[in-house]
Amino acid sequence: MLAELLSIRRFGPYAHLVLAAPAIARRARPGQFVEVRLSGEGAPFWRRPFSICRAADGRVELLIKARGRGSALLAALGPGAKVDVLGPLGKGFTLTGKTPRLLVGGGYGIAPLLFLAQVLKAKKIPVEVFIGGRCEEDLLLRREMKLAGAKVTCSTEDGSVGFQGRVTMPLEVRLRQTPSPVRLAACGPHGLLQAVTRLAQTYQVPAEVSLETVLACGLGVCNGCVVKIKGEYQRVCKDGPVFSAQDVDWHA
Ligand SMILES: Cc1cc2nc3c(=O)[nH]c(=O)nc-3n(C[C@H](O)[C@H](O)[C@H](O)COP(=O)(O)OP(=O)(O)OC[C@H]3O[C@@H](n4cnc5c(N)ncnc54)[C@H](O)[C@@H]3O)c2cc1C
Questions:
Q1: Which of 77, 212, 234, 236 to probe ligand 1 with, by most ligand atoms within 8 A of CB?
Q2: Which ligand 1 atom minimizes the distance to the CA of 215?
Q3: Which residues surround ligand 1 with Cβ inside 6 Å?
């Protein structure tokens, strides 16, 4: 569908887009994504996947990092532009049960976790969020997470905000101090997801991770995004992107 870009806010390499996309907003679940077709000079052939960061009132929000041609073209659009979006796609995070959640996001990986935090809070499930980045600029959606009612802990590798070091440090402190039942959900760079999986094993906590691979069709047809899950190949775009952490074969 063609969605009108209602607003765009840029900060550093990131951009936050609000699109009018009622049909997608109505059906979207946290952890799902949209595939965006870019146009313009040098536009990539394949659509590019972006997590749904918020979906409400007929609007879909995306948080993107401009890293290549496709994302740069998207980040350069102005209000009023028509954006070709396909979605919602993929399988999202588990929403059942009342167990408190610890959400862990690195960089733009925090995007689907805002939607998740909002839905969990609406279900009266306590949410704590651990946001990590290299520096303050990478700590995204802090204010929005607090407004969503989540307890927020930040960490930066340069120590400019919050804990100095990786986001898994304060997460481990939290897991060690309060061994009451929790569930983990994480999205971010591969190394972060692996570290969260290790902590989940150590502290025997169920965890879900949203995997990022290079996607092509986004519809489960081309099998270009397969990963090994419980010894079998599964498609990130169709069977995921959210998988149970202990099922992922990290060394495949
Ligand atoms: C399910 C899913 C959800 C995503 N959600 C978001 C999101 O919310 N916000 C966001 O900014 N990005 C998100 N991404 C990543 C985003 O899709 C890529 O950054 C984008 O496709 C890059 O396209 P490009 O044309 O700008 O860059 P390209 O020119 O295609 O690539 C630029 C550089 O990034 C590398 N690259 C491209 N795609 C990936 C990838 N998926 N993983 C690792 N390296 C890659 C390339 O190898 C190259 O070095 C998501 C990806 C997936 C699979």
A1: 212
A2: 53
A3: 33, 44, 48-51, 63-65, 67-71, 108, 111, 212-215, 241
Domain count, the chain: 2
pTM over 0.90: yes
Contact 33, 241 (CB under 8 A): yes
The pLDDT-based confidence of 252 (bands split at 50, 70, 90) is: confident
**Residue 40 scores a pLDDT above 80:** yes
Q: What pLDDT score was predicted for residue 193?
A: 97
Looking at the domain assignment, is residue 62 inside a domain? yes
Q: In what order do the strands lie in the sheet with 101-106?
A: 163-164, 151-156, 127-133, 101-106, 183-187, 207-210, 242-244
What backbone phi and psi angles, to 5 degrees, belong to 177? -70, -40
| pLDDT band of 41, cuts 50, 70, 90 | confident
Do 121 and 40 have their domain in common?
no
> What is the domain-level CATH number for residue 173?
3.40.50.80
